[in-house]
Amino acid sequence: MAEPSVVYIHASAALGPNRDYLPAQRVRLSADPAPSDLRELTRRVLGQSLRQASHFVELAAIGARLCLERAGQAPPPATAVYLGTGLAEVRAGEALFKQVLPPGPGLASPFDFINATNNMAAFYVARLAGLVSRNLTLTLEQFSFEAALYLAWQDLRHGAVPAALVGGVDENSFPRANHLRFLSLRDDQVMGEGSAWLYLNGDPDGAIGEVLCVETLKTDGLGGTAWAQALRQFVGAQFTPTAPVSLLPGYGLAPEETEALTRALPGVMLAPYLDYCGCYPTAAAFGVAMQFDVPPAAPQLWLHVNRDRRGQTRLIGVRRPAGC
Amino acid sequence: MTTLDSTQLKRDLKQLIVQACNRDVAPETIADDAALIGSDSALGLDSLDVLQVNMAIQRHYGARIEDGKHARRVMKTINSLAEFIQSGR
Amino acid sequence: MCVGGYGLVSCYGTGAQAVVEPLRARRPGSAPLTGLQLPLPEALPVNRMDPQRYPAGMAGTQAAMLAAAHEALTMAGLDRTHALTDCALVLGGTGSLAIAEAEIRRVWERTGVATALPVTSAGAMARQLATTLGLDGPVFCLATACASSANALLVARDLIRRGQARRALVIGAERLSAITLSGFQSLLLLDPAGCRPFDAARRGLQLGEGVGALWLEPVPAGHADSGRRHRFHGGANLCDTHHMTSASPDGGAMARVMQAALTQAGVAAEEIVAIKAHGTGSADNDLAEAAAMKTVFGARVPPFTGLKRGLGHTLAACGAVETVAFLACLDAGFIPPTAGFEAFDPALGVQPLVPAQDAPAGIYLYNFFGFGGNYGTLVIGHG
């Protein structure tokens, strides 16, 4: 096995629920974003329309293309694609239910059926970029992006792939009451959607950041303070921060958990991002990616922390080192 | 079916195809005898579009084709598609 | 790395052993579809699990996953008292699992039956299963169409090799649903006569459901192969970007994944004893796969077999279901023949294995090709 090596971030893109993909376009959401039509943006960004594709596929394809464009170099064809999605196709799936189950006519739309194939978005991403290598779609509830990033990070560290395009993509659906069948949200949480991507490889030249860790912490059953202490211990053992540390709280964290964590990690700055993308299973990708699509600034370290209803914690550590 | 019915049917079919396949084309610009399938045809439909149209005509007209090659023959032009539906098969 | 145990729930019953004699005799495990009001061909053959033991819905699916898992663990010499700490669970399963579940839920809601069924996903089912079995290592769920379970095996193997898990249980699971049936019908991909792999008259797929389980572990030190040990040499996954649902017609991408798998495994093409083909029975897929085998093996294509007339196309599960069925036949001493094949197709230029043939020790290739151009090939030894 090759000696595990450093994994560098070369580009990122975060497409949000209001067709926003530049820092200046991002607005804080005060309510559920309206359904967004991506056909025009698809034409503009991809230079073609994806006539047979769904909203979910468009979402994935636009985000991935933006990320690769920013990498400034064509990715090698052996670049692997890792797409994490918690819900995959929601809208086409809903359409199929109406078409097929009584009182529907029983006829599935071929377009909807094909788009509802979970890996179709990753297929389009690969096809549009000419990537003929490893292509994995992973789903693991609200840790779906973490699962995708973990595999990409490990494959790169072990030299199994030369470069990786890693995304977290989920779409919303309407009305809210129906969408909540798929996703439990508190009344104060808006239902977002997004497509956020990182382009990674092992080359330090031109890198804008590094992936430090993607960890699973068995914190089942731990209450707020004990949980925060467990994370503090882990972070203390794992990092000797040489740069300011920011905390990106995932949507599974209860407000009191976020508070306990900011108390437990001295000097940590809170960097909430869900106001910009809303809540969806792979929002973590948005939170991480949006840190790297701004002009280079001072060195910084970000910890994305998320927890699910089973009590498990997942942590992503990324940083912008000096000179990046 | 009278000629008038046939004209209306063809108009409906153009609308149906454009809609089913998300084509950015004004339905009335499609000639009755223009090729529909293939990259150099008027509509540029591919094999997946043929299936999508097949589902739509089954839903609207109850006409069912269960073979891909047959479907491509039937959907060669608006004329051939209208003929197929009018023949009630 | 080796397959230390395997388990199966298929149309032939519970247990991997249940497939051996029917597959040897080329007996289709299908029955005509009933109970669904859909515009489908009459008496469409499908392969279902025992509806009494594994009823449609989450409880039945979990029961099947547990049955296959326990069989695999038992074969590996692990009874229910063994701690499975730092062992991974990797599921090959897609949204179709959740769809099958949701169909039931919605029917119940419409009929006014109170339901407390949680909305689920394949990812949630993977995590639930890991908890139930006490596998407390990493959990992943691969949703890559018909290559899902093959990719799950590749990911599990990486987890062990990289020291991230001691052992791994790989499960592939698929349930039939009205939406899946209707979807394939809309694509005109169902053969009313059942799957006829590589046959001149083939017309399409025969859908099935099933659950397969494989226990992966490092080859035990000093372990003399017991005949139950199958060395997992390696494999590859890649994307054919030709089209959403159809393969590069010349089989180029399929040939590349087979070649990549051989290279990754460090095995020469000449060493391959036989191939478990994907063999969906669709006109295009079998044509491309035949071309790919000729590209990789030249004039000496090894014996190859399609299992989908017997087991049905179990979609996301087929990487586990067919691998287990094939291994069970090898362990019974034969390479399974191809049910559903009758007539040579000159357009393919090759024909699958009929009848059964003795299974020599050696290295075998397993192909799995899915929608979205997702291809996985595995290289697994026998004896």
Automatic annotation (TrEMBL), chain A:
Highest taxon of source: Bacteria
A GO molecular-function annotation: acyltransferase activity
Pfam families: ketoacyl-synt
Start and end residues of each Beta-ketoacyl synthase-like N-terminal domain: 50-171
Protein name: Beta-ketoacyl synthase-like N-terminal domain-containing protein
Organism placement in taxonomy: Bacteria, Pseudomonadati, Pseudomonadota, Candidatus Muproteobacteria
